[in-house]
Amino acid sequence: MNNLDPIVLIIIFSSTIIISYLFNIYSKKTGIPSVLLLIFTGVLIGLGFMISGQAKPMGMIGKILPAIGMVGLALIVLEAALDLKIVKEKLGLIFKSLATAILGLFVTSYACAFFLTTIYDMTMVEALLFAVPLSILSSAIILPSLGSLSDYKKEFMVYESTFSDILGIVVFNGLIKLHSADPGAAVYSDIFGNLFFTIIFSLIASYVLIYLFQNIKGHDKLFLLLSILLLLFAVGKMLKFSSLIIILIFGMMINNYRLFFAGKLSRLIEEEKVKGILSDLTVLTGESAFAVRTFFFIIFGLSVSIGSIFNPTTIGIGAALLLIIYIIRTICLFIFNGKNIFPQIFLAPRGLITILLFFGIPKALTDEEKGGYDLNGVLLFVILVSCLIMTWSLIRHKKNLEEAEKYDEVISEHSEIDVLSEDTIEEIEGE
Question: Would you list the domain boundaries of the chain?
Answer without folding.
Answer: 6-395
